[in-house]
Amino acid sequence: MLSTSGDTDGSPRPRRVLPGRAGTVARLAADATSARTPPLLLVTGPGGIGRSALLAAVRETLTERGVRVLDLRLARNERDRHHALAARLAAELGTLHRTEDGRRPAHTAPVAPQPEAGRDLTAALRSAVASGETLVVLIDDLQWADTASRGTLLARIRSLTGGPVTFVCGYRTTPGGTARDRAALDRLRAAGLVRVVPLRPLCSAEVDTLVAHEVRARPSAALAARLRRDCRGVPAAVLAAVAGYRREGALRVLQRHACLTSPERPPAVPDDLPLVEHLRHLGDRPWSVAKALAVLHPLGPPAVGLIARALETDEEEVREQLELLRAEGVLWCAGGRWRFRLPLLGYALAGCLGQFERRRLSQLAVTAVWAGEAVADDHVLAEHLVTAGRFVDSRRAAGELVTRGRAALLHDGHHAVRWLRAALDLTTEPEQRAAALLLHATACCIHLRHAEAMESAWTVLSRYTGLVTSEDLFDMEAIWVVSAAGVSDTTALAALAEERWRTLPGGEGHRIVARCLALCHLERWREAVDHLTATREIWSRENDLVAAVGQVVSETGAALLGRTAALDRSVDDPTRYPLWHRGGRHRFQRLTSLARVLMQFNELDRAEALLAGHHLPSGYRPIPDRVVADSHAGHWDRALDLARTALAADTWVGELTSHTMASRELSTILAARGRLTEARAVIEQAKSVHSLLLHLLAVPESEWEQILGGRERSLQVITEALALAGERGLVVGTDELWLRRAEAELVTGDPAAARRSVAEVIRVAELTGTSRAQLCRHIGVAMMEGDRTASAEAVRLARRRNQPLELADTLQTVVRLGQADPALLREAYGLYGDLDALMRKAQLRNLMREQNISVPDRSATTSENERLLAVLVTEGLTNREMSIALGCSEKSVESRLTRLFKRAGYRSRVELASAILTGDYPVGRPG
């Protein structure tokens, strides 16, 4: 392919972003027109590293500077045509001198290779040199040049030193290269005729930038990690992986971040990937070997023999092909284990296999492992069992998949569900199928796959009641109730709570606890707790599982109603539980349920101590619970990334109280960082789902109402939330609501009402005894009584609780009340800074000015103000709304926007928003 700069119609080509390459492009463009530069600049690197994109950028840069550019791209078949390159280059140089603007005529016929091509090229180059005008010749894919042309070109380049003609060539390298090429390069280097410019892989930040420009959103941590692992910084591989994810709908954009719907699943890479095409052209045998290796390489050295068996050839032939692939830079080998240098290429090749081929290869792998000829870890063998399907012994395969699914139940939900689903597809025997259904329903419920859990649980309840134990039967009933709530099927829950509970299989205790579980998910807490209390003698004697679930429901419901004694006893000694001795998921569920209730009371320290004391890894906790814990602990970036991961995978709606709490924390973080529209959307989404404890959402909702100047609406939100909690008898979280109501009532000039609200704060603190309620109590007393001792106690307690946002808010509050040293505002400012809470910092700066406290690092403040302003613009706020949020005039906002656009070079809000989406204008934490 030959062209001059620009498209054939003269229109400019769109410029693709080249992360990490801008400096290289600038240096090449400068060197290509410098008399001190060697006549040959050779851009090298493996396939997909970006040589062609780099040469295109150099061409555009030179064309913009008015430099004459001749642009060739070689095709693979030209290496077999004698003097092909020399003939084309000679003809194009001649054409270039015969046209005024340096463009080839529209219908120039391709030039056939000629024996005189070498002499013609020499003459053409002499003519170019004689003209004295700078000419840059770009040749892409020089590795495809025929031997004769390459020799002629290199010989003629020797005469170009210091002349006006420079060659800039792209050359695909392999790890070792050929001895002949290395020797030729060494001779050219020694003569000062060549400068080699090797392209390195992109670093993590550069990969992120490339992805951001491709999908108009920053990659999530999970996506970025996956691309680093699979693509090794090769730009073409990164783009192919992203295209594969998008093609199969596995990539979603949430909160300006690109997230994977299933981080464990590899992308469906298109089979026209250049790296794959390169392998196709190597021939049928290496192509077949490479595809087979893509499936079998995890088995290590035995993979060679299995490939030979699959291809019906001998092992020596397979090794020859593997060595060829290594020479081409595709593979590497250590200890007899062959691996793809680029993992993504392995996925792409596996995708090129037909269904029969894949199943046959997995059949060979499974058979070899079962026969002791190969060794595979549980994950590898399970995946081969899934793929092989009925090509192997179905009964044995199903049994092993159930075993591995059970082992992965807690720590690897994606694969546990996948393997158990495959086991169900493989077995028709009632006993084995019932066992698989039990585990599949459990795995889906634990990992928030509610629809699947509900389906499997109901299958057991409707078809296999005679094949499972009484405990397993109740387990399915409980899973069905929780999953029905997870999919917002309130009709089914209401029917169970009213009438259908009497028709459930199992004993009376089954039916009582299942009904009360449904009542709780309908927020009929008092009814559930009272019924459990009245029937304790029945359900506590049914069986261990019924007794355990009844205990959890009773403790949790009572605690939310303000009766925390039973919960406190269980937190002090969680082993007081009928299923504790069984360990496994039962201990996991016991600990996570207790920790969840503690987090609903904002008792992070007690929850973390409970889990750590019994060695439960934090990664085992459901994502919504981890979001809440990370938010309270000040790990906001991690909390946001976890939330986006769950939203992308449709596992955000977990245990419904956790969903409410996680939504509350997510909204709080977003609002504190100025992302008010997103914060509002989170609350609206939570309300649209059948969530529980919705009154807890009033805190962040009232905050962003107040930020935008809606003081009356803010108070109304709090009042409505307290009414909702009162209607349902709920006490949890009302301490903070009463305190916020008291603050609002003082502002509106109603101290009597504020005093009544503080009295409610004190009542809740005495009722629950939690440290968070005590903190609210101290602040309320300080607010109403002007008690500096209470303020000091509030600060002491906030420090002990060690929640950064809470501590910063407490410091700000006691200073605003005039009951603490204003210098504490500097500490609060630093805490907000650690959280990157741009909005909170901007609000605090106004108070610091009122208190005559200097704001540290004025240059950083200017940058933060600009970042916050950019965020608010992207959120769609009007100038008036921004002026209210920032506490300044609309004219001031207009002036700030003008300076921002001028300094950053954007002409409109749309351009600024686009730059934020791609990361060109960062609004997150610097670095």
Automatic annotation (TrEMBL):
SMART domains: HTH_LUXR (SM00421). Keywords: ATP-binding, Nucleotide-binding. Pfam families: AAA_16, GerE. Residues 855-920 form the HTH luxR-type domain. InterPro entries: AAA_16 (IPR041664), P-loop_NTPase (IPR027417), Sig_transdc_resp-reg_C-effctor (IPR016032), TPR-like_helical_dom_sf (IPR011990), Tscrpt_reg_LuxR_C (IPR000792), WH-like_DNA-bd_sf (IPR036388). This is LuxR family transcriptional regulator. It comes from Streptomyces cheonanensis.
